[in-house]
Write a structure and sequence with these properties.
It is built from six helices and 20 strands. By secondary structure, it is of the alpha+beta class. It has a 15-stranded mixed β-sheet that branches. It has a five-stranded mixed β-sheet with strand order 1-2-3-4-5. Helix 2 packs antiparallel against helix 3 and helix 3 packs across helix 6. It is globular, with a radius of gyration of 25 Å.
Length: 407
Amino acid sequence: MNTNLIHNNITRYIAIFLFCLLPLKGVCQTGEETVDVLVGMGFENVGWHENDKERVYVMENAAYRLNGVGLGKAVDVVQRMGLPEKKPCRIIILDNNVPQISLYYQPVIGDSIPEVNRQDWVVSYNLGDNWRKLIKGNGLNSSLFKVDVVVYPELSLKNLVLTQIYQVLFNLSPAIEVSFWKGMKFTAQMVFPIYNDGYSVNDSKIHPRVIALSQSFRLPWRGTTFARISAGLFYSDRYGVDLKVKHIFNDARFSAEGRISYTGPGGYEGFRFHYGSLSRVTWSLGGSFYLPLYNTQFSLKAEKYLLEEKGVRFDMIRHFRYCSVGFYAMAAQHANKNGGFRFQVALPPYKYKRKWLRVTPSKQMGMAYNAGNERYYYKTFRALPEDNMMKENEFNPYFITSELFNY
């Protein structure tokens, strides 16, 4: 027999065999390999579970600074390593071991070639029925007991002196952040003044600022409700207890949120601690609407401030991949109407890994401009260094969806 003919036949058979395998692209029978790849990329608390209804992955993005980018990378891995055959797949995303949102893929019955794109995943607050089986354990590459040293750069400006354009304050404020159990975080922050051009006498010394414990929950009853309670020493020389609750309605564009705090004056001058009695109740209650087309959030709140004046506040915030920009307007008893703008910018590096100790700059840096120049009323405080408008939006399903489609 002709040798060339034999070689041609063998080549043809191999080609036909490989062609027959093409429809199987994207299908695998186990999720263990996928979990190993995700752990290798730096994702934490990774696990998986499968029954006759669906396959579920659970993970926490600790590898990418921009959450939308990180979740897009995770989706790509799950698709590349293989989806379950003829059943849905769900990816549940955690934050400090607390479930936030899920990405859900439902195969189309009758598809012979299960080619899946990012656009085929539905992002929502719905976690399905199997997530509890996955979060009972810590998962692979657990985030517990791992330490982050997060350096927060802080720039403040004010224009109150006629002979000086701006009084400037620039601090570097590193914070130790560590979690010992699900949803819990311990935060201890120091302030190191770098440049103080007459901005504040109290900020000219190295001093502790935040020493706090916080506990986050996703409440178990029907609906989507998140809560966080914090206790300790907060920003703006306040100490006490702070509770924040947010409820997302069935139409996830709408949400309601509330905050109540019981605090007193307390803080450090250098390393000398001073405090007063717990005596002040402050609160905030309102709702918001999210416009997915432009990733823009509108919120209206009634608030009680530290000087016990009551008022209202309106915010409009546009969220982009690398920044969030907002405008606000306020009115309160005894005070002139006030307003201005604020922004938050994501800082590099945008990709990193964590062993047991990681030193990084903060995820975002921001400022607020007080156009009304009100310096006495409307006073409030932040509980933790990470609290900002960009952080609050990082698990918004509409924002994540836009990031998956556009990246």
